[in-house]
Amino acid sequence: MKPTTLAWTYLIVAGLLEIAWAVAMKYSQGFSKLGPALAAFALGLASFYFLTLAADHLPIGTAYAVWTGIGAVGTALLGMMLFAEPRHAIRLISIAVIVVGIVGLQLTAQK
């Protein structure tokens, strides 16, 4: 696998782990529940680790923006599904705009 392909794989894993730690943080109820709190910390560290691996071969601005974008989109969608957060049209459109930005950054980072 080419270094940049592997870097994108690491970045996707980092983004998915970011979603997982954010959801675990919500379940920890302000870090008052030990299991979810420990999961949030462990998942957060793993997310940062994979982000650093990705940033070795991708521009840091692209890597960071895509990482936060994946986390924002995934966390917002899971918030709607798991925690009955609002599903207003403007919110869904905003999520779609983030996805377009992630794809645009990925396309412009190709070497």
Taking the sheet with the most strands, its summary is: none
Question: What is the CA-CA span between the terminal residues?
Answer: 15 Å
Return the string of H and E elements: HHHH
Mean pLDDT score: 94
- Low-confidence regions: none
Q: Helix count?
A: 4
Number of strands: 0
Q: Which range does the strand content fall in? A: under 5%
Bulk shape: flat
Q: Rounded to an integer, what's the Rg over CA atoms? A: 15 Å
What fraction, in percent, of the residue positions are helical?
Answer: over 70%
**Oligomeric form:** single chain
Number of domains: 1
Structural class from helices and strands? mainly alpha
Describe this structure in words.
The chain has 111 residues and is mainly alpha-helical. It has one domain (3-108). Helices cover 82% and strands 0% of the residues. The longest helix has 25 residues, at 3-27. The model has no long low-confidence stretch (mean pLDDT 94).
Tags for this model:
111 residues; mainly alpha; 0% strand
Quick summary:
The chain is mostly helical and 111 residues long.
Question: How would the blueprint of this fold be written?
Answer:
Blueprint: H1 3-27, H2 34-55, H3 60-83, H4 89-108
Helix pairs in contact: 1-2, 1-3, 3-4
